[in-house]
Design brief:
Strand content: 5-15%
Largest sheet: 8 strands, parallel, barrel
Low-confidence stretches: none
Mean pLDDT: 97
Shape: globular
Distance between the termini: 48 Å
Bound molecules: 3-methyl-2-oxobutanoic acid
Strand order of the largest sheet: 1-2-3-4-5-6-7-8
Number of strands: 8
Length: 262
């Protein structure tokens, strides 16, 4: 899978699937699946490290996750998130951060927003680095929103998202994630662009969909956003397996002779 395959998929009317991933083991599973692309999201800060927002994701954190995922991802497209402020401290700092993530094994980079860092997007694209945009709810702006809120509800903010989507296409992005906007707006944007839109909480009119892997696998029953369908209820069977392990240890049925060296 390459950015060109993504563009061709849209041209051919084929939907795209993506999931987040942060480690080698799950990357291997994704590599065996038909899922089209992997995002090493800065949601790692929340999902893996237990923080309340993505603002605590750092470049070294992302570099480590990207390298682990890249080792297991086979021929999947690996997109890496540029973490909070890493692309807002000037062009040189942004290019250094991009270099770090690409050297760790990313095939493309995702940046939230567009206004104020058009120069970074343009330089990345001209340097041969495929760029994925991210509009609608931009989790790195959660402090400005005052919480994780649906975006583009009124005419002016909807227009701004649509304008930014067009700007990303013009700057050379190969795809754009659209997060938590009304389905009608995401569909209109998808129809207006030639690059694919990858939706999360943005309805079925997008050209593809992305979910956080742990949501998709039902690994967090405490957190179930409305848009995050669990395609597997993983938490129960995993906790059950841990219980069986615990019982087997405590009743001395594990390890057996076959599981021991003598
Ligand atoms: O970091 C992330 O997981 C993301 C997805 C929600 C698209 O950006």
């Amino acid at each position: 899978m390459t950015p060109t395959t993504f563009l061709n998929a849209k041209a051919g009317g084929r939907k795209l699937s993506m999931a987040t991933c942060y480690d080698y083991t799950f990357a291997r599973l994704l590599a065996k699946s038909p899922v089209d692309g992997i995002l090493v999201g800065d949601s790692a800060a929340m999902v893996v490290h237990g923080h309340a927002t993505t603002l605590t994701a750092t470049l070294p954190m992302m570099e480590l996750h990207v390298a682990a995922v890249a080792r297991g991802a086979g021929d999947k497209l690996v997109v890496a998130d540029m973490p909070f402020l890493s692309f807002r401290k000037g062009l040189t700092a942004a290019m250094d951060a991009a270099h770090t993530l690409m050297a760790a094994g990313a095939h493309a980079l995702k940046l939230e927003g567009v206004v104020g860092h058009e120069d970074v997007i343009e330089r990345l694209v001209r340097s041969g680095i495929p760029v994925m945009g991210h509009l609608g709810l931009q989790p790195q702006s959660v402090k400005a929103y005052g919480g994780f809120k649906i975006q583009g509800r009124d005419g002016e903010s909807a227009l701004e998202i649509a304008r930014n989507a067009r700007a990303l296409e013009e700057l050379g992005a190969f795809a754009v994630v659209i997060e938590c906007v009304l389905a009608e707006l995401a569909e209109q944007i998808s129809l207006a662009l030639t690059i694919p839109t990858i939706g999360i909480g943005a309805g079925a009119g997008c050209d593809g969909q992305i979910l956080v892997l742990q949501d998709l696998l039902g690994l967090n029953s405490d957190f179930r956003p409305r848009f995050a369908r669990a395609f597997f209820e993983g938490e129960g069977p995993l906790v059950d397996a841990l219980g069986r392990f615990d019982r087997a240890v405590k009743d001395s049925s594990f390890p057996s002779l076959e599981e021991s060296f003598s």
